[in-house]
């Protein structure tokens, strides 16, 4: 809901997709289930072709909001995305939200898209629009992290990790214009699972480099590779000084590929730069910034 972000810290902007201008607007979607919700406390309501579980607390909260006032007092960057042919929440809702909001605000028409963005091209377009808007939205706060400590941009290729006040293991990661979060799972005392763990990032680097390398070679050779998915598991074998890490990759390549082409691309996986870096080992130097 548009009322929530103003109550949360560290929110720089809000993007809405097919949002109703007035919370009460969506009541008609479950009006026939109000009696069941009141009686049982919760009911399964079909919305947009999908079953959604709604509870009495949600209904009560929905009815007490003053949407125009909340939108006017948002005081955040706002991006409104809406389809002119949305059959669940009409396009007029976008007009109301945009009019009520104060600048900075932007609007993107999701032409021909349905409410749930069920077509892949619509969801991809929407994601790209939000990503581009978010990058610009965050420009003016790019150097402010966590508790307000300013960190200079280290330049292209340098990655910076900054302690976050959110938790014991929570850390904010910055590389260029990109922001990420690292954390530990909740099974570890102090972990909040607000982001991947350190070894998850190693696996992500290996997986991304593998997929990129395979895709690049397939494009050059004009192979009919539609998609490449890399699944990676990690475990440690041995003990003490004899311990070593084992990363197991599973490649899923979809497309009209011959057996020989698949075997060739399998071999290419071992040529990706991150694979080579992990296999040859690395020297890690640590210096103290005075």
In summary, what is this structure?
By secondary structure, the chain is of the alpha+beta class. The protein has helices spanning 34-40, 56-63, 67-72, 92-100, 120-137, 198-220, 259-269, 273-280; strands at 13-17, 42-47, 50-55, 77-82, 105-109, 144-145, 149-150, 159-163, 171-175, 178-182, 224-237, 244-256.
Can you describe what's shown?
- This protein folds into 3 domains: 5-139, Alpha/Beta hydrolase fold, catalytic domain (Rossmann fold); 146-196, no CATH class; 199-280, 2-Layer Sandwich (GMP Synthetase, Chain A, domain 3).
- The relative contact order is 0.08.
- Helix 4 (92-100) links the parallel strand 4 and strand 5 (105-109).
- The protein has 8 helices and 12 strands.
- Helix content is 31%, strand content 26%.
- The strands form 5 sheets. Strands 1-4-5 form a 3-stranded parallel sheet, sandwiched between helices. The protein has a 3-stranded antiparallel sheet with strand order 8-9-10, with no helix packed on it.
- It is α+β, with helices and mostly antiparallel strands and 290 residues long.
Average pLDDT figure = 81
* CATH level 4 superfamily of the largest domain: Alpha/Beta hydrolase fold, catalytic domain
- Fraction of residues in H or I helices: 25-40%
Main beta sheet: 3 strands, parallel
Quickly name the level 1 CATH class of the largest domain.
Answer: Alpha Beta
Task: Tell me the CATH architecture of the largest domain.
Answer: 3-Layer(aba) Sandwich
SS class? alpha+beta
Which stretches of 5+ consecutive residues score pLDDT under 50?
140-155
Query: What is the assembly state of the chains in this entry?
Result: single chain
Number of helices: 8
CATH topology of the largest domain: Rossmann fold
Radius of gyration: 24 Å
Fraction of residues in β-strands: 25-35%
Distance between the termini: 46 Å
What is the overall shape?
Answer: globular
Number of domains: 3
Succession of helices and strands: EHEEHHEHEHEEEEEHEEHH
- The largest sheet has its strands arranged as 1-4-5
């Amino acid at each position: 809901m548009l009322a929530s972000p103003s109550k949360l810290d560290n929110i720089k902007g809000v993007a809405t997709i097919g949002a109703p201008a007035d919370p009460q607007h969506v009541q008609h979607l479950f009006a026939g289930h109000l009696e069941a919700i009141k009686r049982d406390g919760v009911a399964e309501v079909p919305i947009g072709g999908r079953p959604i579980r709604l509870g009495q607390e949600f209904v009560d909260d929905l009815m007490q909001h003053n949407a125009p006032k909340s939108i006017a007092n948002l005081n955040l960057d706002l991006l409104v995305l809406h389809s002119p042919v949305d059959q669940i929440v009409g396009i007029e809702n976008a007009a109301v939200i945009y009019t009520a909001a104060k600048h900075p605000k932007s609007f993107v028409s999701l032409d021909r898209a349905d409410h749930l963005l069920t077509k892949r091209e619509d969801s991809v377009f929407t994601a790209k629009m939000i990503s581009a808007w978010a990058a610009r939205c965050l420009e003016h706060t790019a150097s402010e992290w966590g508790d307000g400590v300013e960190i200079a941009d280290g330049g292209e290729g340098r990655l910076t990790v900054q302690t976050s006040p959110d938790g014991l293991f929570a850390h904010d990661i910055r590389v260029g214009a990109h922001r990420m979060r690292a954390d530990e799972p909740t099974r570890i005392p102090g972990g909040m699972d607000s982001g991947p763990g350190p070894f998850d990032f190693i696996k992500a680097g290996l997986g991304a480099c593998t997929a990129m390398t395979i895709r690049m070679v397939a494009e050059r050779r004009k192979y009919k590779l539609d998609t490449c998915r890399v699944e990676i598991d990690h475990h440690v074998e041995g003990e003490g000084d004899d311990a070593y890490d084992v990363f197991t990759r599973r490649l899923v390549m979809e497309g009209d590929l011959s057996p020989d082409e698949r075997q060739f691309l399998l071999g290419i996986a071992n040529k990706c730069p991150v694979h080579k870096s992990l296999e040859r080992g690395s020297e890690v130097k640590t210096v103290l910034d005075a």
